Amino acid sequence: MRTSQARRLAAQEGSIRWRCPCCAAALYKANGDWHCQADVTHRFPCVDGVPVLLNPARSVFRADDFTPQARTTFKNPAAWALWLGRVLPSPSRDLGTERSLRALADALRLRPAGARRVLVIGCGDGTAGYGALEAVDGVELLETDVSLAGPAAVVCDASDLPFADGQWDLVIAVAVLEHVLEPQRCVDEMHRVLRADGLVYATTPFMQQVHMGEYDFTRFTRSGHRWLFRHFEELDSGIATGPASVLIWSIEYFLLSWTTSVGVRRVIKGLTRLLLGWATWLDVPLAPRPAACDAAGGFYFMGRRAEVAVVSAREMIRYYRGSDAKK
Length: 327
Prior knowledge:
By secondary structure, the protein is α/β, with parallel strands linked by helices. The protein contains 9 helices and 12 strands. Strand 4 (46-47) and strand 5 form a beta hairpin.
């Protein structure tokens, strides 16, 4: 039993308005499983106390994928590999999330009690954390993913979120949209579950090699990322990962292209990060430069929900901010 996840979900379960991911009818829990009020064939199991709320008609996942032995998106590395990953320099530097989370925490503090509900889509393996958000008094944070390798309290696909409309104050999706088949549908789902003045924060790669293997599907330029969130007023945006990180990834993946040996690939990754990890500091002075947008590893977007699109197709031409931007 995944005790901590089950306890977190139990604390919020009654206040959440649940929605069937298959037909959008209400859900209820009975005899340990979840059921659709409108269609008895829509039945959703719990695995180790975590509800698996997926629409098999659209998701690449099925409930059977979430057995204790299933890998899904995250591998289960050995303890020594986890330790080595923490010791070695990272091949990339996140330039936006920590600062953005502080700004979002300040925004949540201005909201009344009971209006500080945060939905995390793609919480990953639990190593990221949410820093400033967790320090906000009265914050209610629900973590979801399509993997049981981390702290997810609910397994769900962002293409069909199992929540009724307009009940979250903030939705976070860090390094998620590259791993979904229909990014626009997922952003539309975020828009749907947010309150009228709800906030969103997302980071998505642009110049990054394939990661997470078969679960990697797409990339976005800065302009493409903005268009994806066109039904949100932009509060802040910028480079999440800079050109120096892209260079390190490129060298690492060039060397990895020569072999499929697990052992050799681990050596290549270790040596690349040990020898070149320091160069990620170059992203700090590069990030404010407009030309860096053309070579960035990825972008972040922070926005507030709007009822209609706040940018038009024509305005997207003027949104470009790279080396070829008109002066």
